[in-house]
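Q: What does the assembly look like in three dimensions?
Context provided by user:
Components: two
Sequences:
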Amino acid sequence: MTAPADALSPVRAELLRAARASADAVRDRAQTDAEETLRSARATAEAVLERARELGRADGAAEAARERVRAVQDAWAAELAARAEVYAALRAAVHAGVRREFTADASIGPRCAETARRLLGPRARVTTASEGGVTAEVPGRRVDLSADALADRALDRLGVQAERLWEPA
Amino acid sequence: MTGAVGIEYTRVRDLRGPLLFVEGVSGVGWDEFATIVLDSGERRHGLVLEVDRDIAVVQVLEDTAGMSRTGTRVAFSGTPLRIPVGAGWLGRVCNGRGEPADGGPPVLGGSYAEVGGAPINPVRREPPNEAVLTGVAAVDVLTTLVRGQKLPLFSAAGLPHLELAVQIAAQATCGGDPFAVVFAGMGLTHADTAFVRHGLAARSAARELVLFLNTADDPVIERLLTPRLALTVAEHLAFGEGRHVLVVMTDMTAYAEALREVSAARGEIPARRAYPGYLYSDLASLYERCGRIRGRPGSVTILPVLTMPAGDITHPVPDLTGYITEGQIVLSGEVQAGGTYPPVDPLASLSRLMRKGTGAGRTRADHPAVAAQLIAALARSRQVRELADLIGRSALSPTDLRHLDLEDAFRHRFLAQRADEDRSLDDSLGRAWEVLLTLPRSQLGMLPADLLDAHALPQDQEAR
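A: Here is the predicted structure of the complete assembly.
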C-alpha cells in the first residue's frame, strides 16, 4: 500500500512547476514592462529635450530677429536725425547767404521794392525788413519779399536736390 | 507745397468752424491750396472750397482755433495741393498731413503730384492678375488679394481688424517683385498708433513702408487728406518706380465720419444718416485709384478697413463701399467669440477677382479648386450645424457628422494662426487639403480626380 502523500506528489510537482512558470512569466513581464517603461521614458526625455532645443532655437532666432530689427530701426532713426540736422544747417546757411547778398548788393532792396509795387500797385506801403528785403502792403493784400521769405522759397524750390547732402558721394 | 512769390490776402471776413472767409481776392480757383500765416508766425494750410466774386472760402486743415480776423494772412498757391513724390517716402513716418513725425527732414521728391490724383484712362487699364500674398491663410486661399484690386475688410467694434490689417501690411509680398506698403491710419487712438508703429517696425526699417498716421485727436479735416496723400505717394511708387504697392487704409468709417462733420460745417444738405449725398462718389474717388496701367510694371492694390457701426452691413459706409469694391473680407463676432484669430467668416467673404490671380502659373494649380471645394464644404457644414441644433447630433448621418468635423478642423487647423505667423501659400494649401480630407472622397466632387489621387490618404480610397 502506497502512502497518500506519494499519490499527491505529481500534483505537488505540477503545482510547483506551474507556480514557477507563472512566477517566471510575471518576472519576465515585469522585466519587459520595466524595459518598456525605461525605453519610453528615455524616448520621452529625448523628445522633450529635442522640443526644448527647438523652442530654444526658435526663441533665440526670434530674439535675434527682434534685436536685428531694433538695431536697423535705431540706425535709421539716427540717420533721419542726422539728415534733419544737416537740412536745418542748410536752411540756416541759405538764410545767412541771402541776408549777406542783401548787404553786399545794395541794388537788390530797391529791386524788391519795385517788384512789390508791380504786384500791389503804386500806392503800396513798402517797409524795409530788418534782415534785408522789403514787405509791402495795401489794404487787404500784402507781399513778403524779405530776405528770409525769399530764402525759404528758394529752399523749397531746391526740392530733391537737397538730398545730395546725405547721399553717398 | 511749392512757393512762388505770391500775394498774401489779409482781409479775413469771418472764421466759422474749420472755414475761413477771405475777401478782396482775385484769380483764386476752386480746390487751390492755401498757406495761412497767423499773427504769431504759425503756419497753417487750407484748401479753397468756394470762390464767389472776391470772397474765397478756405477750409483750414489744422482748424481755425486760436486764429483771429486781424493779423491773419492767406497766400494761394495757384494750384491744388501738391506733394513731392518719390522713393524718399519709403521708411518715413508722417502725420496725416504728410509732415514728418519721425524726427527726419521734410520729405523731398524729384517731382510734385496733385493729391487729388488723375483718373486712370479706362482704355489703358490692365485687368488685375497675379496675387499679393499676405501670409494669412484665410485671405490667401479663400479670398485671394489680386494686384490692382480693391478688397475691403469689413469689421465691427471689438474685432481685431487693426491687428489683421497690420499683419497683412507687415507680411504681404509679391513673389520677389519690388514691393511697398503705404499704410494710412485715420482716427487712430494713441494706443492704436503705437501698436501700428510697433507692428510695422521691421517693414519700415527695411524701407518698404510709408506710414501716415492721423490720430483721433487730430483735426477732422486732416483725416480727409490722409488717404489722398497715401494714394498719391503709392501711385508714384507704382507707376513711376515700378513697384507693386499695397495701400492699407484704416478706418474708412472714421474717414466718412470726418466727411460728415465737415459737410455739416459747410451747411450742406445731409443725406442718409447725415452723411453727405456725395459719400459714394467721394469713396469712389479713393477706391478707384487702384489698378494697373498697360505698359507700366507696377500696381496699386487697396485694402480699406471699415468698421460697421453696430455690425450693420447696410450702414451707408459698408453699403456704398460694397458697391465700388471687388468683394470683401468679413470678420465675424461669432468666430472671435470661439477664440479664433483671425476671425474671418469664410462664407460671407469673397474676392471677386480671385479667379484672375490664382491657379497654375500664378499661385498653384490646385488653388482655385481647393478654395471652391472648401467653401462648398463649409456651407454644407453650416447647414448641418443648423440641422443638428434642431434635431440633435445623434440623428445626423455619418456624412453629416464628418461635415461637423470638417468645420472644427477648418477653425483649428486652417483658420487659426498667430498674429505674427507668416504662413506660406504651400503650408496654407496643405492645411486646406488636410481639412478637406476629413470628408469622404464622395463628398469632394468639386476636386478633379487626379488632384484627389495625388493628395488623398490611402484609407480615403476605401470610402469611395
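Follow-up: Residues 4-104 of chain A form the longest helix (101 residues).
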